[in-house]
Amino acid sequence: MTFVRSPRVTVFPDSRRAAVVVAARLANAVQSNPALVLGLATGRTPVALYEELARATAARRLDWSRVTTFNLDEFLGLPPEHPASYRQFMEQHLFRHVNIRAENVNFLVGTADPAEECRRYEQAIAAAGGIDIQILGIGTNGHIGFNEPGPALQSRTHRVSLRPETRRSNAELFAGDADKVPAEALSMGMATILQARSVILLANGESKAECIERTVHGPLTTQLPASFLQLHHDVDVILDEAAAARLQPLSALP
Ligand code: GLP
Q: Kind of pairing, strands 198-203 and 158-161?
């Protein structure tokens, strides 16, 4: 019997090498399935991945014209053209570097009626046939997308209040001022994320070591939303050495 351990953890000497390998996997996926449905994340962590993906796209002349994307989340109240919106972040780091069609880019719209927008997004994901590969970062508090730790988690796309530490870690987008970060956001829910056919979570740096240790080895708890990834059968956790510092070696696990 083959025992498949998920999440599968892969540690790279540095985040750039991790980005090159994950970009190659995504480029191969686009090549073998031109109608791939990709779930995408924002934050500092995937920036190198998007750079490498843009590079691989140019080098391999990859065709994105049939690729569909769904981003995880967006700030409530920000229009898509706002410079601090996640929509603009994706334009800058990925979309403008590939020939994706605007109508195949799916985003939660921060200025839409929230309840209606969340319903629309779930329907759009279902209509696209679900997400093939979901890219995730992780907050230092263990959030994925904007599913924040707390007494309960939401399964579907929903409106969420951002925790102070999350607003602080997003301050860079708002000229360093955490008070300017919107207090609320829209986010895919936990089930929306867990229904992706495969998931790739990226984490770099010492500040992520503790939440990564709890994500991989800890009990499932709403206080660390990423721990629920242990329920998924196809999750890769891609780390640099600093983020992996607190993991136990595989041989030491039961
Ligand atoms: C934001 C995003 C998350 C992301 C997190 C980590 O809060 N909503 O999807 O994973 O930031 O950000 P960073 O990669 O900058 O550490």
A: unpaired
Q: Is the per-residue pLDDT at 2 higher than 50? A: no
Whether pLDDT at 4 is above 90: no
Residue from 143, 144, 187, 212 whose mutation best tests the ligand 1 pocket (most atoms within 8 A of CB) = 143
Find, among 200, 190, 198, 148, the residue nearest to 170 by Cα.
148
Q: For residue 208, give the 3-state DSSP assignment.
A: helix
42: Cβ below 6 Å to ligand 1?
yes
CA–CA distance, 72 with 88 (Å, rounded to integer): 14
Phi, psi of 199 (to 5 degrees): -130, 135
- The answer, yes or no, to whether residue 82 has pLDDT greater than 80, is yes
CA–CA separation, 200 vs 86, rounded Å?
19
**Mean model confidence pLDDT for the chain:** 95
Tens digits of residue pLDDT in 45-79:
999 999 999 999 999 999 999 999 999 999 999 99
- How far apart (Å, rounded) are the C-alpha atoms in residues 91 and 130? 22
Q: Does the CB atom of residue 243 touch ligand 1 within 6 A?
A: no
Which residues are marked as active site?
Answer: 73, 141, 143, 148
Separation of CA 146 and ligand 1 centre (Å):
8
Closest by Cα among 85, 173, 113, 179 to 105: 85
Residue 94 CA to residue 50 CA, distance in Å, equals 6
Q: Give the separation between CA 198 and CA 68, rounded to whole angstroms.
A: 15
The whole-number pLDDT of residue 249 equals 74
Tell me: the pLDDT tens digits for 207-246? 999 999 999 999 999 999 999 999 999 999 999 999 999 9
